[in-house]
Amino acid sequence: MTKTIVLTGASSGIGANAAGRLAAAGWDVAVVGRNPERTRAVAEKVGGTAFLADYDRLDEVRALAASVAERYGRIDVLANNAGGLIHARGLSADGHERTFQHNHLAPFLLTNLLMPQLTDARIIGTASVANLFGSLRIDDLEWRRRPWFGGWQAYGTSKIATILFTQSLAQRGFEAYSFHPGYVATSFGVDSPLVRFANFVSRGGLGISAEQGASPLVHLATAEQTGVPSGTYFDGLKPYGRIDRSAMKPGVADALWAESARLVNLV
Predict the structure, then answer these.
(1) pLDDT band at 191 (very low <50, low <70, confident <90, very high)
(2) Residue 65 in contact with residue 207, Cβ under 8 Å?
(3) Which of 16, 100, 204, 224 is the most exposed place for a label (fewest CB within 10 A)?
């Protein structure tokens, strides 16, 4: 029986690469992206179905969930891969800090809305080793009380949220994993002066290929057994990656879930 993956952030980078590899292996790929032309081009190339959503708007996430649920009665893998570094501080259409909404609130909402289709699914979240320079505070999830510093700490904090969300899904009986893909030579952080400088100095040679970065995602989607407990965070293909100590505080995962549910009106 053909397996189905809903893959967000699939219009470029590691998402597009993973979409192609999974489609070649016989998977039915739901290609989710923000840019209409790129998303449809990837879907056409891999023989998948294009779904459009801008994570700057939670109403589009709700519409995405409804469209996916209408198309698929059952999902084998949900890969929450969309998101990234946002250099300039700003608010989404919903009034949330954009990094936090794109990297956590939107996938949190999408996953919760698709739970009827995810009964026996595996859920994968694209996290980052950048979680180590974040600091998650339930009283400042949207980084409004702390210096911005080009968005890097806010980005790292959002990836702590990705890891904790995965752990919370595991605690609720889902099979879920998060992973760091490595620093991939894609459009990541294209608005960041630091990233532009690093790319200039390295003459565009900074980072690994999209194919290398996609390998952990493809592995976690296709492996019959991962050999580690649900909720595990992988650094590349290696389990038990390092996690910032702010994620270790007692009760923080439950508190993050409760506050996230409140912010997206799921309570």
Answers:
(1) low
(2) no
(3) 224
Active-site hit among 55, 72, 155, 183: 155
Q: What is the DSSP letter of 250?
A: T
Of the options 3.40.50.300, 3.40.50.720, 3.40.50.2300, 3.30.470.10, the CATH number for the domain spanning 4-263: 3.40.50.720
In a 13 Å sphere around the CA of 198, the CA atoms on its Cβ side amount to: 15
For 168, what's the count of Cα atoms within 13 Å in the CB-facing half-sphere?
23
Over residues 116-151, the pLDDT tens digits come to 999 999 999 999 999 999 999 999 999 999 999 999
Retrieve residue 141's tokens.
């999830």
Average pLDDT of the chain to the nearest whole number: 92
CA separation for the pair 211, 160 (Å, rounded): 24
Please report which helix (H) or strand (E) contains residue 40, including its range.
helix 36-46
pLDDT at 197 exceeding the cut of 80: no
Tokens for 211?
């194919």
Where in the chain does DSSP place strands (E)? 4-8, 28-33, 49-52, 77-80, 122-126, 175-180, 233-235, 238-239
